[in-house]
Amino acid sequence: MIHHLRAAGVSLIVDARGTKVPTILHWGADVGELAADSLTALADGLMPAIPPSSIDAPPRLSLLPTVFDGWSGRPGIGVHRPGGTDASNLLALRLIDQQTTDTSLILTTSDERALVTVVSTIELTPQGVLRVRHTVRNDAEVDRPLAVDALAVVLPVPDRATELLDFTGLWTHERTPQRHRLGQGAWTREHRHGRPGHDDAFLSVTGAPGFDFRTGEVWATHLAWSGDKVVWSERSPLGPVVTGSGELLAPGEVTLEPGETYESPWTVAVYSDAGLDGVSARLHPWIRSWSTITKPRPVVLNTWEAVYFDHDLPTLLTLVEQAKRVGVERFVLDDGWFTGRTDDRRALGDWFVDPERWAGGLSPLIEAVTGAGMDFGLWVEPEMVNPDSELARTHPDWVLGHPDAPSWRFQRVLDLDNPDAFAYLLGRLDALLTEYDIAFLKWDHNRDLLGGSAHRQTTALYRLLDEVRALHPGVDIESCASGGARIDLGILERVERVWTSDTNDPLERQSIQRYTGLVVPPEYLGGHLGAARSHTTWRASDLSFRLATALFGSAGIEWNLNEASESELELIAAWIAHYKRLRPLLHTGEVVRMDSADPALHAHGVIAQDRSSAIVAQVALAAPLTAIPAPLRVPGLDPERRYRVRPLDLGAPARSIQDVPPVWLTEGSVVLTGRALAEVGIAMPLLAPEQAQLFTLDAE
After folding, report:
1. Per-residue pLDDT tens for 114-124?
2. CA atoms 537, 543, 546, 549: torsion sign
3. Residue ranges with strand state E in 17-125
4. Does the annotation count 86 as an active-site position?
5. What is the DSSP code string of 409-443?
6. Containing H/E element for 330?
7. What is the pLDDT of residue 87?
8. 679 partner at 20 to 30 Å CA-CA among 118, 239, 366, 624?
9. Dihedral angle, C-alpha 290, 292, 295, 301, nearest 10 °
10. Burial of 393 by CB count in 10 Å (0-12 exposed, 13-18 middle, 19+ buried)?
């Protein structure tokens, strides 16, 4: 059969005729309704010529390409029998079953000689998001294990997609974009952190030359997995252009006994003919369709950069009062609350409230927090252990890695795959959540794995999160990993928030939030108002810039408000009031990013789903290239409706370098159609570097 899945302007056509492993004929723009004879004609019309000095059959890219099919690129599957002679290039998979619905395909292939079966699951969501994964099974009856070396999703992209974008980075500088032309050969990214890492490729985008946020065809993939992974794009003179992704498995890491299976992570793939914003426009509604978020994202105050390890109850109680005064809704006690934890060199794993600093337990603080109308959150790092801890001394066998291997931040990794270690952690977390009125866990992960099985550790983490959630379904969880080192669609299924980066420097945050938001909707992206001088870069920033940056996401504060002036506290209270008023728009609308010829200027915004309103930010990252910036064009509005555009004053005005502002700003507003705003735009103030001006747009 030839299968045609269609949704939201996307077509996927799969040729599953005969007994060969099926092949994807088309993934991209919708080709319209095609009758069976037209699908056959299309498949036959795409049958290529046989080139000289090649296999004696038309070349084809299957769902599981291997050397057996004449595929000389990176294979989609690799298995072997330990101690035996079977190898992946001898796999002769044949199609034995196909099941289909309007939105999905399940294709089963098998090699009876090798005793291997693979089930490929393909889904096209109503939002046009493609999801693909494979499951391999060992069909041997007795005493014949099967080692899985690789199981990846390989998707074709057209040859016009010659430009590649993905991401790299480091601590406090995550999601740094890098792009280049894809030449002959493979561009491969392998991540061996036991988590995606600060340098995570994150989203692999192959597109037409010059694609940008609002223009160009792109084919994007993301691996929904929180452990080691490999992603690649490959162009060969001997075959089609492909993009691939899968879990990066160490030798012998996954070995299947007879009857056992290994399931690859989902590869999430998006086609867009409207640039990178088109990718977000598909992913965000899809994520929201299954999101665990059930209530508005509260304004958070986190104590880390306010007090660090100095947990003094009287000081914290004054911070609670300040938080109440400005309108905070969630107070989070960060690292330092458990037995003996006075710095980052000791006590991880000893998850008991420190009786010396907390003589009455956490109850006095929690009662003050809840009495002030806020809920309470707590920092934990369950996957880690300090060598200087009672847990490590009592259970050294629970610690992963060689004992002589270097530590990282004076800590090691606890083996979650050890049933006793798993039970201990689940028991301690359950006990804390049962004893105390805790509404939120900031779940941290501050080092790479560097030892043990990343596969088993990741699957055990998922089980632990799932069991905690089952026991305490009302508790929100935030994924933090030295900031933004574990942000992916695998972890997002199990949390309500991600800590986007450990930096609160607004200049760094502008780029980090911009690119993390390509995949993750803004309501997940934790962003905090920090002190004037950043604790990670030592750069000083105006309050207006910090407020404008932290507004777009799951907003919070990470600043010792006891050190803020009266005027600053009033401005923070006004900012929080604006956030609460705009929260329904910010956390349900469509994110738009405006392309600019000037790299010093960024513009972005959120448009209401019904196109009735919007909020937009014009941001000057550095000195502009020209004295007068180009007019700001706002895409995504209803072209026929008229919108009143007003500056949004957060209380601390943005600094500008101009003798007189644009005329419409002196008058306070301007009314234009959505079409005029999108095609022509409006004049912008001459912002000084590291400043942001916000605007609201309301339909009349």
Report:
1. 999 999 999 99
2. negative
3. 23-29, 77-80, 94-100, 104-111, 116-124
4. no
5. TTBEEB-TTSHHHHHHHHHHHHHHHHHS---EEEE
6. strand 330-333
7. 58
8. 624
9. -130
10. exposed
pTM over 0.85: yes
DSSP annotation of 609:
T
| Residue keyed to tokens 């998006």 | 270
8 A C-beta contact, residue 83 and residue 46: no
By mean pLDDT, which of 69-78, 227-236, 550-559 is the weakest? Answer: 69-78
End-to-end CA distance of the chain: 52
How far apart (Å, rounded) are the C-alpha atoms in residues 547 and 163? 36
Helices (H) and strands (E) in the chain, counts: 13, 35
| Complete DSSP assignment for 69-85 | GT--SS-SEEEE-TTSS
The CA distance from 241 to 236, in Å, is 7
Using one digit for the tens of pLDDT, what is the confidence trace for 656-668? 999 999 999 999 9
DSSP 650: -
* pLDDT tens digits along 490-548: 999 999 999 999 999 999 999 999 999 999 999 999 999 999 999 999 999 999 999 99
Strands (E), 345-391: 375-380, 384-385
Active-site choice (166, 200, 335, 502): 502
Decide if 575 contacts 551 (C-beta within 8 A): yes
Nearest Cα residue to 697 out of 589, 585, 614:
614
Helices marked H in 444-529: 454-471, 506-516
Of 371, 670, 619, the residue nearest 508 (C-alpha): 619
Q: What is the largest CA-CA distance in the chain?
A: 84
Q: What is the pLDDT of residues 442-494, one digit of tens each?
A: 999 999 998 899 999 999 999 999 999 999 999 999 999 999 999 999 999 99
Query: For the purposes of burial, counting CB atoms within 10 Å of the CB of 46, is it exposed (0-12), middle (13-18) or buried (19 or more)?
Result: middle
- Taking alpha carbons only, the member of 585, 655, 646, 666 closest to residue 619 is 655
Of 444, 448, 488, 542, which residue is the catalytic one? 444
- How far, in Å, CA of 530 to CA of 504, rounded? 6
Report how far residue 499's alpha carbon sits from residue 486's, in angstroms, rounded to the nearest whole number: 9
Nearest to 494 by CA among 470, 466, 461, 473: 466
- DSSP character at residue 408: B
pLDDT of 481 reads 98
Is residue 97 packed enough to be buried (19+ CB in 10 Å), middle (13-18) or exposed (0-12)?
exposed
335 in active site:
no
Q: Please write the tens of the pLDDT for every residue from 7-42.
A: 999 999 999 999 999 999 999 999 999 999 999 999
Whether the per-residue pLDDT at 86 is higher than 60: the answer is no
Sign of the four-CA dihedral 472, 473, 478, 481:
positive
Lateral strand order in the sheet of 10-15: 2-7, 10-15, 23-29
Structure-token pair, residue 258: 């007879």
Question: How do beta strands 10-15 and 2-7 pair?
Answer: antiparallel
Of 272, 279, 284, whose CA–CA distance to 29 is shortest?
272
Rounded distance between C-alpha atoms, residue 503 and residue 510, angstroms: 11
AA identity, residue 400: L
Tokens of 492: 């997002």
Q: Are the C-beta atoms of 412 and 399 separated by less than 8 Å?
A: yes
How far apart (Å, rounded) are the C-alpha atoms in residues 579 and 676?
28
Mean pLDDT of 398-427: 94
Length of the chain: 700
User: Alpha carbon of 126 to those of 130, 220, 284, 484, 677: distances in Å?
Assistant: 10, 17, 12, 29, 30
Determine contact, residues 17/2, Cβ cutoff 8 Å: yes
